[in-house]
Fold these 2 entries.
Entry 1:
Amino acid sequence: MRFRKLLLLAVFAIQPPTAAGMHYTQSGLESGFWDRGSVVYAEVASVEKNDGNGRAVLRLGILSSISGPLDAANVGELSADVWYGLIGTSVRRLPEKGARVIAFVETRKDGTFLVPPSNLRFMPDFAAMFVVKNFDSPDVRKLINVLRNLRKGYEKLEAKRKRDAEEKVPSTESR
C-alpha cells in the first residue's frame, strides 16, 4: 500500500499535465470543440523552454488557418504554451526555430493560447503539432481530407444536439 502511495506521488510530481487529468483523447466531435480550437499552418518564430518539466512557450507566425475560428489575417503571430516529451503528451519533441508546423491551437478563456497535451484523433499520429517541410506534404493533404469529413460529422452532430435541446424545452403555444 505504501508503494502505491509513493508511486502516485511520483506520478503527480513528474507528470503534472497527465496526472492532473489534462491528458485525454479528443475526436473533434465534442460539443463546442471547434468554437475554441483551430488547426493552423505556422512557422516557429521562437522556442522558450520554461522549465525541466516539459513545458515551453512557442511563438508561432500563423501562415494559414486550416480549420476553426482563428483568422490568420487577424492573428499574425501568437504565443502558445505546449507540454512536450512527457509520457502521455501528444507532442514528442519541440520543433526548432524556423520549422513549419501544423498545430491544433486552443484559445483559452483568458485569451491565451495552448497546443494541448491531449491526443487528437484527427491529427497524424494523434499529435497536436507536427513538423512539415511545406504545405504540399502528404500529411497535410491527409489531414485536410480528414477535417472535411470530420466537419460534416460535427455539423450533423451539432444540429442533432440543437434539435434534442429544443425538444426538451416545453412549447409555450400548447398552454
Entry 2:
Amino acid sequence: MGIERLSEIPVFNKIRIEKQGPCNFDKLGNVIETTLKKKKYKVSLVKGEQKKKGSSSEVELKYKADKKVDDYHKFAFEIEIKAKDVRPVVVKYNNKETQTVSADLVMVISVTLIKDYKGVFKNGKRNEFLRFLYDKYIIKNRTKKMGVKIVKDFYTLESNIKENLNAYNP
C-alpha cells in the first residue's frame, strides 16, 4: 500500500482551462495529439461522446498520453474536455467566414511523473526499503531533472492549446 503511493508524483493536478465562445474540436484534438507526439508521447483518445440536448449538444473527450523516459521513469498526461451548449456558428477568421461551433468549454489536465513503472520494487517490505534507498540516495537528482522536463512538456502543451482556443477571438 505504501509503495503504490510513492510511485506516482502528481506534477500538475487538475489544471483547468476554460473558454466560452467559438472553438474547433478537430483542430483542438489535433493540437493535443501533435504537440504530445512531437515530444514522443503515445497518445490515445479514450473517450469521445456527443449528446444532443435540445437545440445544442454536449461533448466529452478524454485523451491519455504517456512516455517512457528511461527504465525507471514514465510521464503521463490525462486531458479531459467537457463542452456544454455546443452550437454551430459562423465566425470571421483570416478575413473569411468559417463554420465552427460555439461552446462553454472546460478542459482539465493532470500530469504525473511515474517512478518504477515496471514494478521492480513492487512487492514486499524488503523491496519497499530498497526502493526508498534507491529513490532517496541513488536516483534523487535524476528524478528532479525528470520533473523539470515534464513541466516543460506541460507548458508547451498548455501554450499550444491556449493559442488554438484564442484563434477565433477578434
